[in-house]
Fold this sequence. Notes:
The complex is a heterodimer. Among the domains of chain A are: 186 residues, Alpha-Beta Complex (Aldehyde Oxidoreductase, domain 3), CATH 3.90.1170.50; 143 residues, Aldehyde Oxidoreductase, domain 4 (2-Layer Sandwich), CATH 3.30.365.10. Helix content of chain A is 24%, strand content 21%. Chain A contains 20 helices and 30 strands. Chain B is globular. The termini of chain B are far apart. Chains A and B meet through helix 3 and helix 18 of A and helix 6 and helix 11 of B.
Amino acid sequence: MGSYRQQPGAPSSEVRKDGKRVAGKQVFPPPGSGGSEPQMRPRDLDFIPETVGGKEAKPAGDHIHDRDRTGTVVGKPIPLVDSNAKVTGQAWYGDDVRLPGELIGKILRSPHHYARIKSIDTSRVEALPGVIAVSTGQDAPNRFGVLPVTKDEHAMAVEKVRHVGDLVACVAAVDEATAIEALSLFDIEWEELEPVFDPKKGLEDHDEPIHWRGKYHLARTNVQKRVFQEFGDRSLVKTPHASSHGSWTMMGVHHGFTEPHAVVAHWDPNGRLQLYTPQQVPHYTHRALSTVLDVPMHQINVIRTFVGGGFGGKSDPFPHEMCAALLARKAGRPVRITFDREEVYWINRGRHPSHIDVKMTADDSGRISGFDIDALIDGGGFASFGHVTSYYNGVLATAPYELGSFHYTGARVWTNKPASGAMRGHGAVNTRCAVEVGLDEMAESMNVDPIDLRLANLLPPHSRTISGFRITSNGMREALERVREGSQWDKKFRQLPLGKGIGIGCGFFISGSGLPIHWDPKNFPHATVHIQVDMDGGVTVHTGAADIGQGSTTAVAQVVAEVLALPIEMIHVRSHESDTSPVDLGSYSSRVTFMNANAAIRAAIGIRDQLLKAAWDMLGYHPNVLVLNDRRIYYKHDPAIGVSYLEALHKAQADTGALIARGAYRSPPMGGVHKGAAAGLAPAYSFSAYVAEVDVDVETGLVSCTNVWAAHDCGKALNPLAVKGQIIGSCHMGLGQVLTEKMVYGRTGHLQNANLLEYKIPSVHEMPHVEAIIVESSDPEGPFGAKEAGEGPLLPILPAVVNAVYDAIGVRLRNLPLTPDVVYAGIEKHVKQNGLEDAEAIEPPRLKHGPLQSVLVARSDEHRERDRLRQRSEDTSAYVNGVLFGFDPDRPLAEQVDGWREADEPLPEQLAELGFAGRAWLKKEQRHMGGDD
Amino acid sequence: MLMPPFELHHPSTVDEAVELAASLMAKNEAFDWVAGGTDVLPNYKWRINPKPHVISLAGIEEAHALSSRELGCMVPLSSLTTENDVHPLLVQAASKVASSLIRKSATVGGNLCLDTRCFWYNQSEDWRRSIDWCHKADCGTGADCRVIPNQNTLCVATYQGDLAPNFMVLDASVVLIGPEGERTMPLVDFYELDGMKKNVLKTGEFLLKVVLPEEAAQRKGCYQKLRVRDSWDFPEAGVAASWVPGNASSLMVASTALESIPRLHTEQVEEHLTAGDLDPLALAKIVQKSVKPVNNTALPPRYRRAMVKTLTKRALLDILE
């Protein structure tokens, strides 16, 4: 198998002898090549019997898993397999775990924004009757953090507290009242330090930076991470035909999951730690526990309880998990810690408060000549996932559009606030909103329809983005066309009366991070699944995939049922304990369905092959002509000749006992070699387009979203019911961020609304009607063609609403959320600037197509055919970002144009013109300043 | 979140309740009254001024009285319906309070006696410790007000009840009862401009019922409420207006959620009517000028003040229709 087709300019033989990839020359492996079997399987065949839907349409031609379809359950809407437990109240969440002799743990939290702990005296706490164990930071000096490169957390403050609510000490007592009383008995001597709240201040030098990174510390600033990326020919943006420039302020938002954090720790009689926790990523907790407690990983069993919502907020290893373990070790009894809601907000890890600046330009044929993005993000007190977020804020804007050039500067700073982290749509949401609104504005200045502007600038399927991502399946065009039709866009856009508006937004997201956080993907797979089938015929599947409500357990059960042609009730997924489940990286980066289901399919094939071999022995027909169908294996051309599933199973077990098989998945090596090239790499990407309709009360500024047409390309909907649920849920969460949700830090830097009344999540009453439209582009690498549907669908709702508000009132708003006071202030300013009598006199914007419109329509018509042929693999020529600008995809772009640049550091002459976050590049690291402490 | 311990008392008559209060006062024991508990109990969980004793009014039959003219303090908001012969304005206002679930428990008396709210105050104990407490719940520290620092006289927490302005524009009176006996006063006089004191209730006294004059039935009213989420938020501003149709001099306008107390805008209405004919927009501007919200709720005070004009205008246009 040769190199993959969109690989530009370098045949696969041009790999360095040491196996590393050559700079500027990317080799893309073919899709379907991830995992333990490096080569693509031969593509078959009409193997699914017609009687069970075998002749269904194949939107992208044949698929590697066609041979494994049995028509059993994939593609059918089924309720999640754990829904009975949830709706009957029998699911056991973190706080439902009750072990005999349990103690209640409580955490003492910092009352200061930033302070040094000079001493802690616990003698009065220990003297309180009913207190069994007390622990402080001195008990656990080892640092941890979700990313190995930024371990900056302790179980409890060791030297300094870094925000109000930071952990100081903890106590375990016989009951909650005693534990609460005990918290008031700690005697602590503090030395208060000068806090930093404003991320812009974080770029400046500070007497006492919040963390110290030694020789890698950037001067004496609070910059945790800075990023510079530049691709393409920057000369293109010098003389734009049209442009847009928007400066955004986006407030931080929180996941708002229902279940507060809770943990139970217990050291069993053999001295092994049993830790019950609602975690999205049990494996990282497992690692962090081992580091912090100084206990080998095999002496720890992490038990994932049911998770009452995560959305990224339960994906860090958490200090309270360490606290529970420390207290339980000291007390010799189980310890349970359950958070109050304000503690949930104090541990945070929500979306970063951001200042984002987006400039974009277009040339006279309506091509996007450049994106110029600057993102300053407020990380709060700890690094968390911030290293990655700093990249995502830029690089996830490099598609779905074909760009002439791309320039990104980003910086994440520490401030004395609860730590930001990963949240649904990690790092991509805020920039995406700014970009999509910018496109709307640029379309307006060109007098063209913003949907046509997008349609004429899309990257096709099987292409390479400007920064080197491998795009495989791509349903962007279909998504746009379907929401345009569904919403009757052409009859409404720029034609609605004042106060009514309609807007468009698109999205692009990774389907599984291509680079695992903790190890080299060349050595370990991303996901592993074990399957065991015993005499009763039931199939036990062991996976570490953490079902956080998104339905990963169901997805795994579905694909196994599909391959083995068994009813889903016969598939039992065991995924709770690290003792029994193979290591899985957990539920983040929208990787679970893609990677776990891929691994599960491979494992199921292992079982199926054993069954078919047994049937071959019994029937005399080769497996290639045997069909699995509902607990029966039969000869393809005469269904009367066959054996039952159990007969074949028992035959297969005759010599070996229970059948076992394992399957693994790892994404193929991809991407460029520049610094940060791995950020945003994924084996596949999802695409979405939403149209939102809003009502704006021009006198009060109240915005209500009334209708959403939401098209999402998830490759293949394994379970359309779950996909629609994810689309609607994403709409809800995104609407919260765009309209009402914000973490409010008052003038004293305190989080003012750490509760569910004042942190305003929309209720069902505020929900619009959501028309969920599933687009299936059948991804060649995805399990049965599937891609993610959990995070990407959140992205487009924000810009769609912001653009719809503009359509309704003609005012561009760039402060999120659009609470009524923000909208009203915008209206007031507009009325004043235009000398209007009142808000009712505003004239909403109107569109008269300019000459460019027909150019765009013609080009998108042409591209529609181009995309169709590529999607169906009828055209397999290379395509890289740049072809739209006339470049040859088969030669490296740097050879074709003088100005072409791929850079991860600014040129000296660029330093003066960098945006806010870019100014971090004006500082030097300590090692370049002579400091090395 | 753990409820702090308290002793719950269940008197079954008014006399019993008053005696109970008197005996606790004699023993110098602090207590709170509780009706529906949707305001007091969440505050207790946050350890905001919890008391060792709580006296429930639920067992008192008189407190459940419900007719077109009399509404007992224990009447749940969900019972304020036209079927129960309640004034349409009160039905409208009650339907906008919190959520349908909360309205099943929340009561007329509780809503009128609602504790004032402030984002420096309605927080957990740990949170309030981090700001070193505030004037209203100072835990014995004599802490300053956090909304307007360096003023240590009045608490500026905001009264965010919905029913009060509506009862005011229906000219309602309240019946208070306590160890010193019963007294009746116009609702307008019930409130006292201080976020801590809130109203004229003396220790041991409680609001037994609200009484409407016969004339109230002829009044047509409208309540306009500003909030971020229609589903369950407190008002960020609220304006009620009513009149006997055709009779401009009967016009009454009241507002809520703008200061520590709800306010009846008698002076502003008089000022406007003496100047000429009723002009909703002009009157709305006068009402707007008379309120001074502070920064302690979800939306900024400048905006809330601006909205008073819009809400008043809309309420007036509605009733003048």
